[in-house]
Write a structure and sequence with these properties.
Radius of gyration: 21 Å
Order of helices and strands: HEEEHEEHEHEEEHEEHHH
Distance between the termini: 13 Å
Number of strands: 11
Largest sheet: 5 strands, mixed
Oligomer: single chain
């Protein structure tokens, strides 16, 4: 019986991926862009600055009004009209738009981490085994070392958090070389794999939160994998800038209200991305996932933070999933 359910789950995942790829290929929303800005508020919108033969590009604003032309375009179910001027679509109304200036590029706020890096052990780098990254924030190095028992390389508190091995001869941070999601997610569609990966995420978050660290930027791009897909590792422990998907997070600013419960919200989005082996073109794309993962996504992404499960409750929900590997 469980084997039949497992096969049905695989079939649903593969069908969902196929349907989404069809939408991606058919939409003209995903053209080369200069910039994109999501505008929150009572009437949210998305502003695109598309590349064209001018320096400023073509400005297009789409209001998120579900069930109308603009809402359907954002959900990849209809296409932008063929126009070369600046325009906006508000529901079913298409209007000429005065050009809107794109947001100013954010200035790098990188910190001097040279003293922290100098204390790390020097590693003889092997390109096959190691990944190098320039240290940008002091918080990242502090968080990495805290997750390793207070030293480097130390003893990792979780196998599912990236381990800082030391520094390179050029004072870059040295990590284990793992695979990013494009090389792994398309290869897997089984419930047992998702169950294992979710338990790995929960384990990583439990370790972070026990140390008073909120990840802030938990997304599929910050998940790494062993070559056989057997182990998931959460990376990017800067704890600084992050996703603003949880409804309680302020749209701007460094102190935007990230908490352990906003990390839980982001677990729901990670599940969606795992199932679809992709990242959404827009935030409005509707990504249903098959049972039993649908109930977990729904619980993680509840509107009110206090209504979302704790990590202990989330672990219990995931462990209760029956698979053909149990």
């Amino acid at each position: 019986m469980v084997a039949n359910i497992h096969q049905g789950f695989n079939s649903q995942v593969n069908q969902l991926r196929s349907d989404y790829q069809r939408l991606r290929k058919s939409t003209n929303l995903a053209r080369p862009v200069i910039d994109v800005k999501c505008v929150a508020g009572e009437k949210p919108s998305v502003i695109y600055w598309y590349e064209n033969d001018t320096e400023q590009g073509q400005c297009v604003r789409l209001y998120d009004v579900p069930g109308t032309l603009s809402g359907e375009i954002l959900r990849l179910r209809r296409n932008l009209p063929s126009r070369s001027d600046h325009f906006e679509i508000d529901g079913d109304e298409v209007r000429t738009l005065d050009y809107l200036e794109p947001p100013e590029p954010l200035e790098d706020d990188f910190e001097d981490v040279s003293d922290l890096v100098a204390r790390l052990p020097l590693i003889e780098v092997d390109e096959q085994q190691h990944f190098l990254k320039k240290g940008k924030y002091r918080s990242e190095i502090h968080n990495l070392i805290a997750c390793q028992g207070g030293s480097c390389p130390g003893r990792p508190r979780s196998r599912h958090l990236i381990q800082l091995l030391g520094r390179s001869g050029k004072n870059e941070l040295v990590f284990e070389n793992l695979l990013s999601r494009p090389f792994v997610l398309p290869r897997f569609s089984g419930l047992a794999t998702y169950k294992r990966w979710l338990l790995h995420i929960v384990d990583a978050l439990e370790t972070l939160h026990s140390l008073g660290i909120v990840h802030r930027d938990l997304r599929v791009e910050n998940l790494l994998f062993s070559r056989d897909g057997g182990r998931l590792v959460v990376c990017d422990l800067e704890g600084r800038w992050g996703r603003r998907a949880a409804p309680e997070i302020a749209p701007e600013g460094l102190n935007a209200g990230w908490t352990a419960k906003s990390d839980v919200y982001d677990v729901g989005h990670c599940i969606e991305c795992m199932v679809y082996a992709n990242a959404p073109i827009t935030q409005q794309v509707e990504w249903p996932v098959p049972a039993p993962l649908d109930a977990i996504v729904k619980a993680c992404m509840r509107e009110a933070p206090e209504d979302r499960p704790t990590l202990e409750e989330l672990r219990t929900m995931v462990e209760a999933i029956e698979t053909d590997a149990d």
